[in-house]
Amino acid sequence: GGSMQIDGEVIGNYVVVNTITGDTLKGYLYTVDPEGHHLILAPYADHTWSPMFVHNYAIQDIIIDEDVEDYPELNDAEQQINQLINPEIVQEDPDIVEQRLQLIIDILLKHRLDYSMEGDVVKVLDANIQHPYRKQDIYCENPIVLGKLQRLICFDKF
Known about the structure:
25% of the residues lie in helices and 29% in strands. It contains three helices and eleven strands; from the N terminus they run E-E-E-E-E-E-E-H-H-E-E-E-E-H.
């Protein structure tokens, strides 16, 4: 069978994909493979993106999702998914990384938060702060804890 052509304007938008099996997939349409017109669609739940591959032959239709209030802004979405799909290898200045780590530890002590180091990961509450210790290197399943740590550790200096 011929593959369904995907209209370029849906790329980079929140979409609803209806599949031939009657499922509905929603998310950010990250890209369409130019050869087979397969999709990389990123559903969003619990503040996390889960990019997935959708085969062209499974698609009944794609429409732009009008109901987007639960989603981040489109350009934030694109940046966040970019980082997931193409994690940049960041060459950081080791002195700055060391300063950042020291700063985090000072902040945690000041707020009387117990932490431990495992290798180069700072473990605090139920979060991990990973090298190179930027705001986006704080990982935590609990959005409240994550928000609290991100507010405590504002690296505006870096």
